[in-house]
Design brief:
This is Fe2OG dioxygenase domain-containing protein. It is a single chain. The protein is α+β, with helices and mostly antiparallel strands and 372 residues long. Helices cover 28% and strands 21% of the residues. It contains nine helices and 14 strands. The strands form three sheets. Strands 3-4-12-9-14-7-6-5 form an eight-stranded mixed sheet. A four-stranded antiparallel sheet has the order 8-13-10-11, with no helix packed on it. The longest helix has 25 residues.
Amino acid sequence: MEVTTITDEIAGTVEINTERLRELKEFDDTKAGVKGLVDQGITKIPRLFHHPPDEHAEFSNSGSTAQIIPVIDLAEVGQDASSRLEVIGRIREASEKWGFFQVVNHGIPVTVLEYLKDGVRRFYEQDIELKKHLYTREQMRPFVYNSNFDLYISPALNWRDTFMCYLAPNPPKPEDLPVVCRDILLEYGAYMMKLGITLFELLSEALGLHPDHLKDLGCAEGIISLGHYYPACPEPELTLGTTKHSDNSFLTLVLQDHIGGLQVLYKNSWIDIAPEPGALVVNIGDLLQLITNDRFKSVEHRVVANLIGPRISVACFFSEILNPTPKLYGPIKELLSEDNPPKYRETTVKEYAQYYKAKGLDGTSALDHFKI
């Protein structure tokens, strides 16, 4: 088997099968992504997208109500002290048990959520010539559109296309964003920052800390937004929309449409996170698990491919990756004791992000690399 050495922006120097490299480059060079394959009318998905059978075994709670991710009403936070404490208690339980919960009455109008989903759809469904010039693997551009950020190092590709932009601390210039979704992305970024600060306050109190503790650590300083487009897949049983992974962030907020497909791994079973009208999915990221010394869980999750599509989702990751500082993050001292010593070494956001990207979405946790 002939092997070629390539230089990948994410992983550095990697070795890859020559035939596979040719297929990857052919796909990448179309600049049309997975949607381009669907537009061609394919009925069989390319082998690049085939995942091993054990990666997508059919074990989930579909149709069952035995295990349901909590839906928390944030309107109760401002009612009275007892209601606030009850919400904090539910957030604490969800963060320790599931690593996931959904929030409703979060302060973002439903019209904004719908317009955002429409904006993402408009971007992907415009003529290919209008978006092809934005297709790039240069991660530091104001707006990055491509398919599979880890294309050249991933064991199997995911059935989705993605665009990425940094919404905070320095929002992009309007002219750097596509016209079809420019205004709504900037508006959504402002809403996200406000909601993120509220959630970090509640999470701080859930840990028994001052409400500003996580915010003062810098957990809410940066937001990276990813707009995902999961086209209908002719052979969903052979692939995945997103491989099993945990998030490289302090906190992630996800807007998903009505189609569903997001699943969280709980006690070796895949639990569906059913779409809830007007809700946002909240999940703990690796960095928050690290600084809470495993108190809050960054849980592995995935997105299954679907026959109906396209599925639209927007994920906002709270982590200062664009302008990382030398600030070290380790287990919060106030949470440690003789019986609960630190489980992780200190690291910077930049070091963690670099390791996470070089590793790719290979189904393993980057946290293991930082354990003491």
